[in-house]
Amino acid sequence: GLSQYSSDPRTEWDLSTYSTRDQVLEAMRSLRYKGGNTFTGLALTHVLEQNLKPEAGARLEAEKLVILLTDGKSQDDANLAAQTLKNLGIEILAIGVKNADEAELRQVASEPLELTVYNVLDFPLLSSLVGRLTRVLCTRIKERSNKENADIPVNTGPQLSPTDLKISAVTSKSMHLTWGPPPRPPKKYRVVYYPSKGGVPKEVVLDGAISSLQLSNLTSHTEYLVSVVPVYDLVVGDALRGVTSTLPLSAPRSLRVSELSHNSIGLRWTPAQGATQYLVLCSAAPDGAED
């Protein structure tokens, strides 16, 4: 499977889209470069929530590996998103090209770093990594498969998925989330939220017994995307998603003129809730306008 990202991640194809090597290679040859910013944290969250799902071809009994290829420093928190994947047993290999930040690659990648972090000076040099990466990946899969003998759920389905996301008490800076827990309680919830027009994703991790959350310090008059992801020991359930907009900041009302003289104007208005200062702008009416 392959996802390409800038400020907004995009799935190019899922794990189940192609069934032969030739089909994958042909898809690679047809791939078009996606320009833009470098929001690596958002991309890793996209991979977790969209690409490592049974409906996208991810088999629950199979090892999960993510290869991150980047040529820049992330403009959001890649480490937080990467840590979430690693906590779920997902292996991350980080490959940097040109201007990639090696310190960030080492934060994002799984241990041991000598096997999972690579950095080359230019794109043609990536070909020199293919043989070693192939051996590392195959060896890691075999090692981890031999270690893990725990029972794994056959599929997620409704047993592992929360329901009925409700967003209430929306203000200019906050909103309240509630949801119905799945029949099988999760170990924890990941709540991810960010502005729909681009912005740094933020994440809150809750105990699996909690099914509500107050989001605060939001930006006014902004549409937010919200995801509630149930996390189990060996699997991630289907995410609940919602979208809502914070209210605009309240405005002063009922502007009235009083104490009018030849060189002064007195003003009165109904205060705006939460305002700490007012900026009053005054200019002469244009020619021909009413005095």
TrEMBL record:
It comes from the Eukaryota. Gene3D superfamilies: Immunoglobulins (2.60.40.10), von Willebrand factor, type A domain (3.40.50.410). The keyword NADP does not apply. The lineage of its organism: Eukaryota, Metazoa, Chordata, Craniata, Vertebrata. Residues 161-250 form the Fibronectin type-III domain. SMART domains: FN3, VWA. It holds the Pfam family fn3. This is COKA1 protein. It comes from Columbina picui. Keywords: Extracellular matrix, Secreted. It is found in: Secreted, Extracellular space, Extracellular matrix. Residues 1-133 form the VWFA domain. InterPro entries: ECM_Assembly_Org, FN3_dom, FN3_sf, Ig-like_fold, VWF_A, vWFA_dom_sf. PANTHER family: COLLAGEN ALPHA, COLLAGEN ALPHA-1(XX) CHAIN. The keyword Secreted applies.
